[in-house]
Amino acid sequence: MEMDAKAATPPESTILFQDATYSVNGNARQVIIDCISLEIHTGETLVLLGRSGSGKTTLLKLINRLLLAQKGEVLVQGRSTAQWDPIRLRRGIGYVIQEGGLFPHFTVAQNIGLVPTLEKWTPDRIAQRVDELLSLVGLDPREFSARHPHELSGGQRQRVGVARALAADPPILLMDEPFGALDPVTRAELQREFSKLARRLAKTIVFVTHDLREALVLASRIVLLQAGHIVASAKPQEFLQIDHPEVKAFAASLGSFSHTVTDTVPGLHTIPGALA
Amino acid sequence: MSPWQFFSGHRAEILEATVAHLTLVLIAMAIAISVAVPLGMFIVQRPTLRNTALGFASVFQTIPSLALFGFLIPIPFIGGIGRRTAIVALVLYALLPILRNTYVGLAGIDPAVLQAAEAMGMTDSQILWRVRLPLALPVILAGIRTATVITIGVATIAAAIGAGGLGTFIFRGVAMVSDAVILAGAIPAAILAILADLLLARLERRLKVA
User: Fold this and answer.
1) Does the CB of B209 have a partner CB in chain A at under 8 Å?
2) What CA–CA distance (Å, rounded) separates A187 from A164?
3) Phi, psi torsion values for A81, nearest 5 degrees
4) Is the model's pTM score more than 0.90?
5) If A33 and its partner were Cys, which of A22, A89, A149, B113 is the partner (CB 3.0–4.6 Å)?
6) ipTM greater than cut 0.85
7) Which residues of chain B neighbour A110 with C-beta distances below 8 Å?
């Protein structure tokens, strides 16, 4: 369980956006990310918050070079993503998406063991690592290793998705609305567990969400995006005090959200930090 | 003469024709698969080429089979009387279902799965061999199954251009106005089609995961 204590990341393991601009097909009229500069520190859990279409997923994809900035640079561990071999870069970055993006034809063990397999670990070492990770995300290896993704619940799939991203012990973890498709109860459960896990793992985590409540629970820093710009950046405790219309808009959504949810799911409002 | 009498009197001949028929089908299917599957993989990302290729393959499906055999006879190299021409025609018929299903199977994969594969640092060829093809395989196989059943039926007409097979009995029976002789060709052909269908359906089910 304490396996990641050794994985204290080197100080240069940060992500740095320098005037990064991304537009669809280089078209100046479809700018998604507009000249963003942002430093992401080693070991922090940075939550990118924003509405749909604000550019948060695009920003995430610039980090593991699923997309390349047309202007400016994105540095990962001190080197521009344009200079990285994309395969090597991505093997060192865990990636979790909504519904997990698990391979439906692989078992849970094969899914989790994929990157180690690509990295040519020995089968023994892979099997041991898979067991370790399943326990880490709260699934019994004996019960779940041989299952296929369609034999899992949404929450279990998401846990496997997290385990898979951690498999080769990457210093960076990117998460794109990983809990977005879950029911509110399972969602809150996973948020709580993941927040504990994140503190223990000491990884640099970039987490995308449109849910302020989730951001408040998980983040060590919240960055708010609006139409391809950063409009606010603050610790969760200070975030709601920021005087910006978009922050206020999100704060308002929190109000209506807590109303409807506490009405229908009593007890959910007791999650630490959920309603700040 | 009852069909049964004809069957027992010509057992060796019927068996020989069945083997010839099956050989014709297997050769045609092997060629069709090795053309249509790579072509389908190639056209997935290329919309213009995709429409051309699928349109081209559809044209052959619309030509009545007897006419297609007739058209091919005068063409040099691939034409003439005999098995070679028949195989060319059968391949042309089998292309569309395999091509279309290869395309549909590959295009129908959840984009999130492909993005996850890319984000995990898989190379293009690893994604193709370990993710895309295995996931598309049940659909591709369904196309191969359809094509095989069609080919077994169409191959009976190949006898009209001297390619042999079970169609020989059917044409002879039509000429002799003998149901027994027609059935000597038709029944084994039907059995072959049913067996091929069952066998490939079973394989397809085994490959399907979800």
Assistant:
1) yes
2) 19
3) -60, -25
4) no
5) A22
6) no
7) none
